[in-house]
Amino acid sequence: MTCLYKDRFSNKEVNKYVNILRANALNNIQIICWHLQDKKTDDFHLDTDEGEQAIEIIAEAGSLTEEVVEAIKYLWEEEPLIQEVTNTARIGLDSQTPFYLDNVERFAEEEYTPTIEDILKARLKTTGITETFFSVEETKFRIVDVGGQRSERRKWLSRFRGDITAVLYLAALDEFDKALIEDPDTNRFDESLKLFGEVTSSQWFTETPFIVFMNKSDLFRKKIQQFPSAMKERFADISEEDSADYQGAVHYIQNKYEGAFGGNGRLYMYETCAIDTDGISKVFYAVRDVILSQELARIGF
After folding, report:
1. How many Å apart are CA 143 and CA 146, to the nearest integer?
2. What is the pTM of this model?
3. What confidence tens digit (pLDDT) does each residue in 243-269 have?
């Protein structure tokens, strides 16, 4: 929303993402390296001494030094097993890990300045409660962003008492086969669906309309194309046809959220891609119309 309706990002905000993106790249490649070290067998290992040495350098790294960047580039460009683990392992990697590793050399440059695409693809954990104010054609909005991690929920769930016009719930389509970072034994989709059911059933949101953004549609489409059986492997009750079809797979996930919805208000669902600002803008105009209609109905018009 900052990209669409505010005066872009300030220099201070942009500079904040330099270290965030560097950490995103290093943290995710370290997760891969630690996984390879932990699971190393005669059949599951890198074939070269250079690869093993690169893993050791990265595993102990604290920042993106020149040596670490060269080690990351070697693994990412020369070792097929790294790509395989990134695409298939359930080890809590960020969805944008390939983007981080493709751009790690740029991130490490001394004069690096993040682009809008970089910022939109960065992973920044929301902690506490933050508010953003903006206007869309004279309609004023206040968006309250809350942390979705388990440790953050108790801070906000009971805070909203009757002053919420609508709830925007972000659900990542592509994370159906990924584990939580804070709990590697729990699937991200299962956790999101459970939280959705709890929040929509809460006494604080009994009549509140919910708007679900089924986000990261671009990554989900790519995953379905590359791994047409992935949905079927994760969900036994999806047909093989729908598993291999983008719209069929989206419809399956949408049905899951509709089934978990516990509120008495209206439920609206949209496919979104955060980096597609034109698409997000069109969706948000639709959301605005929904919210205005709800408000007019509430006051008797």
Report:
1. 10
2. 0.78
3. 999 999 999 999 999 999 999 988 999
